[in-house]
């Protein structure tokens, strides 16, 4: 009999972390590696936010706080939701956790029973299905395709919902595809959800401020106020504010759900880092003028990467609306053999051969639920991105 729990045997380690770890190992061995696996901005946390963290240390704000966030941060989050999304929440409706992942897990753990279903569009962030499994639920994957720019249609959502559906997880702009839903596209989905009052909405808005061109971000409870009482709107400071390591995520939602999430958190990690909380107050209430220039920088990188990848034989790369990922299809590469002698039967074969033969680390599409494809994070320097795309082109040229 295994000592490990049956629940743990249902889940797997994060593929994105595995790719990043393998790339670091090869780099330590002296290989010339360009890692495009991690979803992490490549610039520093802005100075005024860092200074707020230092000030928290120097003024002794280093003790326990309320388990799901200090009042000052909850007020800052409430102001942010009102300012950016037109959503009204008070302190009792806001939860702060150690990163967005903890917020999502707390919500699922607090609400799911054995057999409860959670609809997740694919491609999906790798953690969604495994968090559902850890919480005792059953992920129901709703497939999208490159033909619809990896966006879920109303008919697909309707087909995925059953009487056992408890949650619909929504992420726009998306990790891994960067796909962003327009207000009209999202309204079609919310119209479906209005017909199914047992389904709650878990909206992951982590990439809200990384929206490009004419695309305008919107969130479900904003588009359809009738869903306000059964929507958990989640976000964090990790991506837009370059605070991945500070580990602050947050959510706004019904007070009863927030109370249940607080109970879960109080018996697991308790409060997020006090220093990080004070830095997050500054992030949300201080100057916001760096957000738009940063988004334009990522947009320029997107344009360069999309153009370069679409020039590669066998690759078709949609143009995403936001985030800092592209998700090119490699359907025309399957069945071929690399210059190094590897037969490409799956997108994992493609990613493994690409790393071994060229030193470019990407994450294979099967990790995100949709194949054959791979994810590139363009949160890297322009020089690294250009060189990586050149190597990918050479690799594709060598397939035969």
From TrEMBL:
Keyword Transferase in record: yes
Question: Where is the Aminotransferase class I/classII large domain positioned along the sequence?
Answer: 32-392
The answer on whether this UniProt entry bears the keyword Transcription regulation reads: no
| Entry EC no(s) | 2.6.1.-
Q: Which UniProt keywords apply?
A: Aminotransferase, Pyridoxal phosphate, Transferase
Instruction: Give the catalysed reaction(s), semicolon-separated.
Output: L-aspartate + 2-oxoglutarate = oxaloacetate + L-glutamate
Cofactor or coenzyme needed:
pyridoxal 5'-phosphate
PROSITE patterns, per the entry: AA_TRANSFER_CLASS_1
- Tree of life domain: Bacteria
- One biological process GO term for this chain? amino acid metabolic process
Q: Which GO terms describe its molecular function?
A: L-aspartate:2-oxoglutarate aminotransferase activity; pyridoxal phosphate binding
The UniProt similarity line reads: Belongs to the class-I pyridoxal-phosphate-dependent aminotransferase family.
Subunit arrangement?
Homodimer.
According to UniProt, the name of this protein is Aminotransferase
* Taxonomic source organism: Pseudaestuariivita atlantica
């Amino acid at each position: 009999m295994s000592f490990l729990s049956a629940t743990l045997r249902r889940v797997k380690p994060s593929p994105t972390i595995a790719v990043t770890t393998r790339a670091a190992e090869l780099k330590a061995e002296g290989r010339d590696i360009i890692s495009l696996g991690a979803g992490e901005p490549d610039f520093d946390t802005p100075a005024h936010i860092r200074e707020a963290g230092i000030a928290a240390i120097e003024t002794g704000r280093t003790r326990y706080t309320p388990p799901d966030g200090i009042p000052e941060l909850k007020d800052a989050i409430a102001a942010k939701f009102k300012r950016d999304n037109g959503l009204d929440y008070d302190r009792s409706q806001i939860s702060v956790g150690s990163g967005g992942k903890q917020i999502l897990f707390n919500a699922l753990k607090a609400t799911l029973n054995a057999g409860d279903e959670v609809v997740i569009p694919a491609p999906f962030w790798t953690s969604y299905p495994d968090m559902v499994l850890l919480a005792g639920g059953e992920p129901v994957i709703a497939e999208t395709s490159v033909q619809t720019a990896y966006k879920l249609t109303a008919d697909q959502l309707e087909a995925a919902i059953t009487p056992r559906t408890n949650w619909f997880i929504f992420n726009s702009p998306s990790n891994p595809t960067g796909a962003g839903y327009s207000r009209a596209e999202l309204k079609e989905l919310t119209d479906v959800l209005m017909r199914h009052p047992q389904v709650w909405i878990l909206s992951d808005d982590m990439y809200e401020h990384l929206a490009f061109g004419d695309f305008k971000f919107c969130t479900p409870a904003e588009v359809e106020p009738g869903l306000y009482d059964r929507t958990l709107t989640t976000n964090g400071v990790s991506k837009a504010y370059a605070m991945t390591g500070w580990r602050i995520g947050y959510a706004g939602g019904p007070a009863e759900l927030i109370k249940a999430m607080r109970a879960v958190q109080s018996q697991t990690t308790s409060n997020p880092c006090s220093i990080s909380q004070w830095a997050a107050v500054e992030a949300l209430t201080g100057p916001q003028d760096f957000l738009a220039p940063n988004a334009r920088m990522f947009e320029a990188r997107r344009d360069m990467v999309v153009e370069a990848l679409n020039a590669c034989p066998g690759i078709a790369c949609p143009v995403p609306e936001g985030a800092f990922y592209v998700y090119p299809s490699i359907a025309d590469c399957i069945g071929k053999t690399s210059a190094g002698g590897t037969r490409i039967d799956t997108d994992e074969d493609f990613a493994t051969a690409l790393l071994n033969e060229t030193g470019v680390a990407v994450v294979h599409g099967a990790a995100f639920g949709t194949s054959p494809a791979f994810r590139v994070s363009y949160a890297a320097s322009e020089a690294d991105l250009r060189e990586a795309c050149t190597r990918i082109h050479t690799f594709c040229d060598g397939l035969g």
